[in-house]
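[Q] Does anyone have a clean structure-token version of this?
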Amino acid sequence: MAHYTTVLNEMLNLLPRHRFESLVKNHGADRYVKKFTCWNQLTTLFYAQSSGKQSLRDIQQGFAANSLRLYHLGLPAIKRSTLSDANTNRSYEIFEGLFYRLLERCQQVTPKHRFKFKNPLHTLDATTIDLCLSVFPWAKFRQTKGGIKLHYDFNHAGMIPEFVRITPAKEHEITVAKKFFDIMPDSIYCFDKGYIDFGWFRRIHDHKAFFVTRAKDNLNATVIGQHSQPNKKGVLSDALIELQGFYSSHNYPHPLRLIRYYDAETDKELVFLTNNMKLAALTIARIYKARWQIEIFFKWIKQNLKIKTFLGISFNAVLTQIWIAMCYYLLLAYIKYQTRYKHSLFYLHRAIRETLLSRCTIIDLLNATEKIIPKLKRDDPQLAFF
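[A] Here you go.
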């Protein structure tokens, strides 16, 4: 019989399976399992994520309608109860571990950021996913609201998330950053006012890294000198300052740069705070403007990934689905950069969704035009053998 492959087969082949199996073994997740293994669960959830399935019933019916292709995925018949139990009982940490293994592979092919400086550039931010409190009582946020918060370290080299932390929505961004985030020397970290904490600034400085943020209106500081002359490109001033007040000056005793910048696009004056003394003031302003890339990322994952509606209601099921979504995003990025795919991630995601179980290779798919993709979806001569 001729070899049979689908887009989903090829995507799964790109995953580091031996490392995934090591994670499964470490958690003992396949112990006493006879049919529906962790790899089967991963395959099923990848199918659901790629095709945009809304419920367990949708997944079951989708596989039932493609039963001839199911054989080639090595899957048993999918039952809603079996998948629900697996999502509830098998630790989400298996799929979290897969995310970081896949990240290592993705980092090898991502392009550099668009700035001329060589420092790694990161943006820190978080986004909230609203949940119904009566359905998800463990996610209590306010008295009548539920939610979880996804905290990200977003690397501008490749526009990929390098660190993800999922917490209850009430957890503040700076608390998570100070508790879990690892600072890499020589990197530049950009974040909004929600991360302003002078003890956190000192920790970044002590690790020989840099930060760029917006200054608060009530900043208590004294100007001690001028860092550079303002220019005609929007930089109004570039001053050296020292923090005043007992706690502020104790937590961060070093000089800082306070840059006033006029943004012609928004007709606003912005004030930036940084410990980087080498980069031009205009570059600092552009670094903060690039922070909006993470907002685009948040919008993309909420619109295209299944992270707002969930297949299960338990804490473990929700986190399992989110980690699978993040793995899928990294896999899209890996395919795009490894093959130098010229179109956007959205176009790649849409093409994969339309041809997921078609008899087609990823290379064929990447070279296909919008007119060819429907033909790839229809042509499946292998099914004639059954």
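[Q] Thanks! Anything notable?
[A] Residues 83 and 330 are 24 Å apart (CA to CA).
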